[in-house]
Amino acid sequence: MAAVLKKRALAEYSQSIVQEAPFEPQLKRFRLVKKQASGRPTLALISCLQNCKNSNEALQTLLRLIDTFEFEPPDIIEAVKKLSEHFKSEPESAVRVKILSLLADIGHEQKADLQAIIDETLLLLKNERSHKVIAQGINTILKLGKLSVDNGVLHLKLLEIVKHYLKDVSHSVKCKCLEVIGTLTPITADLNTNEIVHLISSYFNNEDARVRSQAFSTLIVLHERGMTLNPDIYMNVCQALKDDYEIVRLVVIKLIRSLGEAHPENLIMLPDSEQEVRLIDDAFGKVCSGLTDLSMRVRTLAAKLLGSMTQVSNHFLNQTLDKKLISNMRRKRTAHELAWENVTSGEWASGKKWADDQPKEMVDADSINLMSSGACGAFVHGLEDEYLEVRTAAVESLCQLAMKNPDFANLSLDFLVDMFNDEIEEVRLMAIDSLRRISEHIILRDDQLETILGALEDFSQDVREGLHQMLASCRMSTTGGLKMCIEKLLDNLKKYPQDKRSTYRCLQKVGAQHPELVLPLIPPLLCIHPFFDTSEPDVDNPQYICILILILNAAKYSPTISPLLEPHTLRHYAYLRDTMPNFVPELRLSEGTGNTIIKPASVPESFDFLKTIVNSLNASEVSYRVQTNLLQMAKEHLNRLSEMDSSIAGIAQFTSLYIGAQLLYAQIFEKGLWKNPSTLATQQANILKTNIDQLLENCLKMQYLFVGLAANEQCSIKQFRLRALALNLIFIVKASNSSALAPCHHFLGAVEEMQRELVMHGLEPDSFASSVFKELSVLEEPKPGAVARLLIPILSESKLAKIPVPNSQVRMSSAVIIEPSNQTDSTLKFTAGLTMAVPLEAELFNLSDPSRLRLIIKYPDQRTHVVLPRPAHLKPLFFDNDKQDSHSGHNLRLLTTVLISHQVWSEACNVDISIALSVPEADIAKKKFNDSSSILHLCKPQKISVAPKPIKRGI
């Protein structure tokens, strides 16, 4: 009976296939017809324009075109024709404006005839009277002209037409015409520059401010495109600085800066004077005068532009910091100058002579030089401005000029230090960073250092850490200044214990830069007495660690420091060298101290040993058991090597992980039970599933936890992961009741991505990948069962690829949680049901993608919370550019708070906090087949003792 039913089922199945076969070509033809008609809805909407009863309906129809704006090449000509016909019969100007706008959008379509659309637009504008429509038509011509970059004949034709429309009375038409002239004028050797400049400059005195502004902007555009502007227009441009409108003054300042940079050595005659100055110097003075403008936007722009004018003479540059106060045309003298004059004159005004106390330096209004009065005290005005934007731009420009001029850097030092007391934190941070950037040109005096150290009392941690970075970069002049700096940093550390790491890093750089100043301070800092033995300090005291870091880093560059150290200080050095190797340098101490540090193996020696291990494994052809023992031994050697030599730790860990994945793969294939896991016992099946999951996790670690991998190494990892995905798919199909559709899609997506990458990099696939590519290409319907049956013989026959050749540029991502630390035994208490904020500070190294970073909070009841840290809480770990390598990933510092909440516990328990990367499982070809993600931990979890208290009820 069962056989009869089986025959009947097979007969019905085969009969259904025969019936559906004739209809397949019709379905394909239907789809093709539908695809060809994809651009017709837009054309149909345009055809509806002739049925509109009024202009409002026509405008609504045109607005609907934006949602379905799609054309096939044959439809473009017809669409332009219908829009043009409706334009001629449309009485409403708003509808005609929209039609011209649509013509510009149609020109951006592929295979659109730009010449035909431009000619049609010019034909429509020929009899137009509305200024709005003409302006939009010229704008359409401008957009279409930009698309035809190489058509110089067309551009010349458009320029002649646009010059005709310049006579229009509307400001919008004139502005668009000037914009076309600036954008489409061909910059060639035979271009008549004087004629173009003369035409544009004739609109400098137009009655409309918008036209004047556009005329100046047109010259700026032509200058940026490579046209050389005639410096003769400079005086006319400078007159526009007195314009009543802000938009004009903004553009004029930009043009003056451009003229100054284009012709810096041209000499110009000052008005009412026989003196000649360089054009760049006079332009600098004119831009400086913008810092006294009434408009905040003009002052901000002027302050920004000053930083880019680096060819100015030192005399004019120094004037920007010399603020001469002038009141009622008389120079105001300082109190010191007045007192000195009284002492040296030997007489006082008696009142008997007429006007014997008149001011001796009367200033004539006509004799005031615009250049000198503009540059005089310009940066002082900018730094004292009431608006944040102006002060910020002034600080940035001051820093840019100081970086190029050491003398100016020393003059600007006092002004930057004064900005440390600004009321806005952003300005203080910028001033601190500016001082750090110019630190190579300056030496801090004691009075300046006192003002700087006063800013350490700032409540903002960003400001304090910025000061630490700045002090680490600057040089100090005296021992007293260095002592004052050390004392202030130690006092500040008591007030803000969270600044411990930043203070350590600061004193490390200070000690390395000032060994000659640290030497006389060693006895008072370490309490060394010539006759009495002092008590041994506590090595866990942060203040004492700061002093040791300072002295030990100075001892690296001063051999006379080491003999002054006490025996217990040398023991503390050995302790800090083991616990804090990043802050304490390696010192060559005498043999009598017993603290000689053994120099680790050099990079070539370690790297050669690593290459020897990999080459021996790739060349060996032995039995399975011997091969497993070799891999296991090599893995142990590599783990030990990564601990010994940090310079090749990344590639050693990568190779160890790759060998571990090979061991897992060999363990799965040992007895061949993976081919039919449904026959295994429950425990064996669970072991097999665990091994496959571990293999997938190792592949993800190799793919996402390492930076600096070459293309062949990345492809080798992904090909190995293809094997793991194939094993996972076979296990789900053969020994699981769950759906295998998503894993199958995931595997096929990985195959497609792998094939594209191999072609892109010109690499050959391994035996497994090449077989999969070949078999899947002939598979008619890639269902999970068919794919799994296809993969079993391929996996059985293909051999493992060789271990990738070591690459010394590989680095492994890692994280170190500094706070909270495991050393604290105190229990954190909070009210149950509410939240408690735990400060978290961590250092992250070699991250390839910081957006994948996650915080993992695991409670004692096994509940886990995954938190995405805010991007603002991630800051660069190193500020020096020479320590940042784009190939080695991002080094960041995470400073945030972790929110913890739970119900009442019977006793205090530990909550685990760790840092991890979130890696989407379906991160293949930028297409997600499922929403699952894997968590790759970057460090061991930090445990904190937490005890939620019950809510107190009653009064």
From TrEMBL:
Pfam families per the record? INTS4_8HBD, INTS4_C
Q: Where are the transmembrane segments?
A: none
Q: Gene Ontology terms, cellular component aspect?
A: integrator complex
Q: Which domain of life is it from?
A: Eukaryota
INTS4 8 helical bundle domain sequence ranges: 608-807
InterPro entries registered for this protein in UniProt: ARM-like, ARM-type_fold, INTS4_8HBD, INTS4_C
Give the record's keywords alphabetically.
Answer: Nucleus
- Subcellular compartments: Nucleus
- Integrator complex subunit 4/Protein SIEL C-terminal Ig-like domain: which residues? 816-950
Biological process GO terms, please? snRNA processing
The protein, known as = Integrator complex subunit 4
Q: Which organism is it from?
A: Photinus pyralis (Common eastern firefly)
What high-level taxonomic lineage is stated for the organism? Eukaryota, Metazoa, Ecdysozoa, Arthropoda, Hexapoda
